[in-house]
Specification:
- The structure holds 2 protein chains of 2 kinds.
- Chain A is an alpha+beta fold.
- Chain A has 3 helices and 6 strands; from the N terminus they run βαααβββββ.
- In chain A, strands 1, 2, 3, 4, 5 and 6 form a 6-stranded antiparallel sheet that branches.
- Chain B has a single domain, classed as Hotdog Thioesterase (Thiol Ester Dehydrase, Chain A, Roll), CATH 3.10.129.
- Chain B has 4 helices and 5 strands; from the N terminus they run βααααββββ.
- The longest helix of chain B is centred in the first third of the chain and has 10 residues.
- Chain B is elongated.
- The model of chain B has no long low-confidence stretch (mean pLDDT 94).
- The chains are: A alpha+beta, B alpha+beta.
- Chains A and B meet through α1, α3 and β2 of A and α1, α3 and β2 of B.
Chain lengths: 130, 148
Amino acid sequence: MELPTKTFRVTRADLIRYAGASGDFNPIHWSDRIATSVGLPGVIAHGMFTMALVGRAVAEWAGAADAVVDYGVRFTRPVVVPDDDQGTEIEVTAAVREVTDAGLTRIDITATCGGEKVLSQARATIRTSG
Amino acid sequence: MSLDPSFVGRTYPPTAPYQVGREKIREFATAIGATEPAHYDPTAARALGHPDVVAPPTFPIVVTMAATRQIVEDPDLGVDYSRVVHGDQRFAYTRPVVAGDELVCVNTIEDVRTRGGHGFLTTRTEVTTPDGASVVTVWSKIVVRGEG
């Protein structure tokens, strides 16, 4: 079963807010000068910000803020965030892989930005009953 | 970047307890755009059976990223942090983190390898209450990119 697609817009302001909230002040997430000096095309989103947005999608699919019991991803490609008002967009889809007798649902997640996968092996287990 | 494989299995001393604040959870939830009332409103959280507001699933990174500095900054291991990128991340929950929690982290180096000139370091952090009750287990893999 496919779950409804969710999209998240990401702007530079979002990265600054996430840096403050998470304590991750790595300058590749706010300085084009530093980001390009280490070979990136420009400022990129924190991998953990992308993972948090996908986590929101998972919680929304589960229908509860406390339903996630296992959640893992591999970061495969950076999410480049331009310095404009539009930013970029991350699209998240998922399919149910398994529903266990213990009331757990395992889902396989796909997250893309500009048509390219930014995560692989993205999986979550959510509690769907009890 | 070559990392010393003899570090596999090394466990570091427990970190000082991290006090999870209600406002910190609200700040984190706001930063990621999460809107569920249980992240903001203690009454909504209690309706789900929790003592106070519930943290979003990736919130423990706030605690564990600080905690794993004792590995990344271990001079004997010699990670060049300017060359680090995030490889994998996983959270396995015993229960959600809630405001009022005191969280202690015990870091273990689970795997070290070098491949294609890059170093790969997998850490496991057991996040518990000060009494040792499990809250969440967190795995992170970082890649230390080789020169050139």
